[in-house]
């Protein structure tokens, strides 16, 4: 069983890579720089910078002959904490590229490798901030990026009506990481344990869940 975790140097991605390795799975996990904590999990660490096309090409090439059971697209960027949408295009660009374009492109590039695997699972780590129904204002750049991620996830899911494919988005909860901050309500371990239970249920392709196994409103 091979899981590939994108964005695993810290936070939720590190927790996911560690938990998957601890249950005996082979894990290939990405980091932009040195990632000693990740290497210590037993995962194979491979470089990937989502804001660099050449880096993405090298990563895709690295996996070109690999059958991937589970691909987890976790890397994400909040952008400025006090964002109101007036920020410069460069700020928008980094958030939209990291949270929307890059994970969707990677899924589109790697789907043949996932279809060659036994599990056929692609997980997009999304957010409750992706939900239009739950939107209460604030963080327009980040919300737009995650709503776009969910929209692209649905489009890719509907483009691949392959029996057995489980391609879905999941909200990890409000998690105590650099992004979630110390006031967040759950630990990485709680989030990861909940999400792995959802992964193992093999949600229908094109769906949107939270870490507690509840379907999320779009
Ligand atoms: N924490 C929460 O409460 C929460 C809630 C809802 C959704 N989420 C989502 O959950 C995912 C993980 O969040 P987190 O809380 O663990 O965030 P985090 O602690 O800020 O970690 C973000 C991860 O993404 C990587 N990353 C960011 N930009 C990248 C880029 N351009 N190329 C490659 N890797 C990049 C980071 O690598 P570096 O170490 O190199 O920066 C790091 O490994 C994100 O998609 C986030 O939007 C989090």
Summarize this structure as a short list of keywords or feature phrases.
218 residues, alpha/beta, 6 helices
How is this fold's topology laid out?
Layout lengths: L1 E5 L4 H12 L3 E6 L4 H4 L4 E4 L5 H10 L7 E4 L15 H27 L5 E5 L14 H20 L6 E6 L16 H13 L7 E3 L8
Parallel strand pairs: 1-2, 1-4, 2-3, 4-5, 5-6, 6-7
Bound molecules: NADP nicotinamide-adenine-dinucleotide phosphate.
Q: How many strand units?
A: 7
Distance N to C terminus: 31 Å
Model regions low in confidence, pLDDT < 50 over at least 5 residues: none
CATH architecture heading: 3-Layer(aba) Sandwich
Give the cofactors and ligands. Answer: NADP nicotinamide-adenine-dinucleotide phosphate
Main sheet characteristics? 7 strands, parallel
Written account of the structure:
The mean pLDDT is 98. The longest helix has 27 residues, at 89-115. Helix 1 (11-22) crosses helix 6 (188-200) and helix 4 runs parallel beside helix 5. The protein has one domain: Rossmann fold, CATH 3.40.50. Strands 3-2-1-4-5-6-7 form a 7-stranded parallel β-sheet, sandwiched between helices. It is globular and about 45 Å long. The two termini are 31 Å apart. 43% of the residues are buried. Helix content is 39%, strand content 15%. The protein is of the alpha/beta class and 218 residues long. The protein is built from 6 helices and 7 strands. Bound molecules: NADP nicotinamide-adenine-dinucleotide phosphate. NADP nicotinamide-adenine-dinucleotide phosphate binds at residues 7, 9-13, 32-33, 48-51, 74-77, 98, 125, 127, 171-172, 174-175, 177-180, 184. NADP nicotinamide-adenine-dinucleotide phosphate (NAP) binds next to helix 1.
